[in-house]
Each structure stands twice: as C-alpha cells, then as structure tokens.
Design a protein that fits this description.
CATH topology: Four Helix Bundle (Hemerythrin (Met), subunit A)
Radius of gyration: 15 Å
Structural class: mainly alpha
Low-confidence stretches: 1-6, 19-32
CATH architecture: Up-down Bundle
Number of helices: 5
Largest sheet: none
Shape: elongated
Distance between the termini: 40 Å
Strand content: under 5%
Number of domains: 1
Mean pLDDT: 74
Helix content: over 70%
Oligomer: single chain
C-alpha cells in the first residue's frame, strides 16, 4: 500500500486553483497570438494538473493499476498538446522531466510496485508556473 502523502496533493490542488484563476482571466485578452498561446498552455497545464491529481488518487489504490495507467495516458496526451507549442526551454525541460516521471511510473506499475509520483507532481508545478502569464 502506498503511504498517504498530503504534501504533493496540496501542491497539485494549489497549482490547479492557480491555473483555474488564470484560465478564467485570459479570455479577455485572447485577441493576441502570444496571449492565445499562453491561454492554450494554461488550459493544457490545467488538464495535466488534473490528470496528476487523478494519478495520485489512483496510486493510493494499488489494487487497480488500470486507473493509474489511464491517468498516465491522460498526462501523456496533454503533454503532447503542450509539447506541440513548446518553444520555451524551461517548458521543454518541464515536459521532459514529467515524461521521465511518467515512464518511471509505468515501469513501477509493470513491476507491480507503487510508483513514486513526486517527480510528476513537481514537474506539474513547474509546468504551472511556466504556463502562468506574469
């Protein structure tokens, strides 16, 4: 059984709340291409953070690895969307870190072990701060 660690969950919740606020404010400025790109990044980052939250919940129940696999698939899909527009070196690095974390989590699941989601949670936080216009 995976020990409960509230700290990563709180970081995910805080990241999700921050992105939600930014996502709601950006449409007012959406006429500019750069702003549209930032909005797309923020929307996708919100989806990634939501998937990371689902992954954390799924890894608490190691009896159902399919749920964790589905969350990892969602993260991969959302990262592909961000990667398509990633021209920022920090964003590219955060995506790479998250991809590495997803790969490690899949390996752990394949070996019937509870994955360490900390690298994924940390990368989601980085992604959030990079995609938040400021």
């Amino acid at each position: 059984m995976v020990p409960r660690n509230a700290r990563p969950h709180r970081r995910t919740a805080a990241a999700l709340a921050g992105l939600a606020a930014v996502t709601l404010a950006i449409p007012l400025l959406a006429g500019c291409g750069a702003v549209q790109k930032a909005m797309d990044c923020a929307n996708t980052a919100t989806a990634v953070v939501d998937s990371v939250d689902k992954l954390q919940r799924a890894t608490r129940n190691v009896d159902n690895p399919q749920e964790a696999e589905k969350a990892l698939d969602d993260i991969d899909r959302n990262l592909d969307k961000v990667k398509a527009t990633a021209d920022d070196p920090e964003l590219t690095r955060a995506i790479g870190t998250m991809n590495d974390g997803v790969k490690d989590a899949r390996t752990a699941l394949d070996n019937n072990k509870a994955p360490d989601v900390t690298p994924i949670v940390d990368a989601a936080g980085d992604l959030t701060s990079i995609c938040t216009p400021g």
